[in-house]
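Technical annex B. To support the medicinal chemistry partners, we prepared a structural model of the target in complex with zinc ion, based solely on the information shown next.
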Amino acid sequence: MTDLDTTALRTAVRHPRVTPWAAGTVLALCDEIDQLRAENGAARGEATAMGAYAREMKQGVTVRDAALDRVRALHRPVEVEPSDTICGECSYRLSNGRYFGKVEDYPCPTIRALDGAP
Ligand SMILES: [Zn+2]
């Protein structure tokens, strides 16, 4: 499809053999075409901006998810005798590998906060 040259059409309808009604109709159509072209250009610009924004948001979600994964890996569940599950990060661990003293049940407050649990 060829783009109509509305500037050329506006000039052409000034010819003496073009009736005032035809000239008025063509000029009105030219105005409408120009308006639609402007709106189309604005919409394309908005679509491009929205696409860029969506890509930024997706990148932000990826960074956030990676951070949450690191926190969950840090606050991992650890099975201890006799049959308890504790948070490996929040519980105190002796140099011999045994947990002693402050022992936090799993899920710990950090994981409960991430999960939205009370
Ligand atoms: Zn923890």
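Notes passed to the chemistry partners:
The CA atoms of residues 16 and 23 lie 10 Å apart.
The longest strand covers residues 77-80.
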